[in-house]
Amino acid sequence: MSEQKVNITRLGISLGIISAIAAAALSAVYLVTIEPIKKVAIDKTNSAFAQVMPGFDNNPSEEFIAIKSADGRDVKFYIIKQKNKLIGFAGEGTSPKGFNGNVTAIVGILPHGEIKKVVITQHKETAGLGTVITDRKRQKTIFDVVNNKVYEGLPPNQYLDQFTGMSAYIDENWKVKKDGGDIDAKSGATISTRAVTDAVYLISSTYNENMAKLLKEAK
Questions:
Q1: pLDDT per residue over 18-29, tens digit each?
Q2: What is the C-alpha separation between 49 and 44, in angstroms, rounded?
Q3: Domain range enclosing 134
Q4: Which helix (H) or strand (E) holds 131?
Q5: Domain count, the chain
Q6: Does residue 16 lie in a domain region?
Q7: Do 123 and 103 meet the contact criterion of CB atoms below 8 Å apart?
Q8: Does residue 66 sit within a domain?
Q9: Long-range interactions of 80-88: CB distance < 8 A, separation 24+
């Protein structure tokens, strides 16, 4: 065997050993980090649930019912309980109609179908325009900072809060005012408002169409 062939063989063996070590290291890192990553995801999801349906003492992220909407989209309804009693659902659904793609909402829904609160958990809307519709950020004054004032509860958002008390079963005109409906939209962010409205209506209408099934399975 020539020296060149010997070197190639040795090189191949060395690369194989290095690859095996790297694969083992990656597997070890994955096993070590998978649970913390999972916990962070669960905590983030539960935080969103607490914003739209506060007061639960179960683990909604592990108790949910998946349903197809009338137009074939996936909607999840997370079961919200307190002292083993159903207090509502946190519905999660996505609209593809955002200015820059999907907009995902989590909507707190009381057992009779009324919307409690809405938060947007995922979006790519334009900062300063679409984000005025999607984000909940508390505006602090200089006096708040100086006095170290602490706020409690969900930061307000006039565009998201307008859905509170609504229900797809009762409220018919789920369109922005520019389209002849009743939903307020920010000038320059009509597309973002349409997407948010679509996501909230998706969740609300799917809940109302499947209310009996959801209430029965959530017990």
A1: 887 877 777 777
A2: 9
A3: 50-218
A4: helix 130-134
A5: 1
A6: no
A7: yes
A8: yes
A9: 80/49, 80/53, 80/56, 80/108, 81/56, 81/57, 82/55, 82/56, 82/57, 82/58, 83/57, 84/58, 86/111, 86/215, 86/218, 86/219, 87/53, 87/55, 87/56, 87/111, 88/53, 88/116
Three-state DSSP at 100 gives: coil
Nearest C-alpha neighbor of 218 from the set 116, 108, 87, 107: 87
Is residue 2 scored above 70 in pLDDT?
no
Decide if 36 is inside a domain: no
> Residue 35 corresponds to which tokens in the numbers above?
């649970």
- For the cut 80, the answer to whether the pLDDT of residue 185 exceeds it is yes
pLDDT tens digits for range 108-145: 999 999 999 999 999 999 999 999 999 998 665 555 55
H helical segments located in 148-189: 158-161
Please return the burial class of 38, using the count of CB atoms within 10 Å of its CB with bins 0-12, 13-18 and 19+: exposed
Over residues 37-92, the pLDDT tens digits come to: 656 556 667 788 999 999 999 999 889 999 999 999 999 999 999 999 999 999 99
d(CA 1, CA 86): 77
Amino acid 85: pLDDT: 96
Judge whether 63 lies within some domain: yes
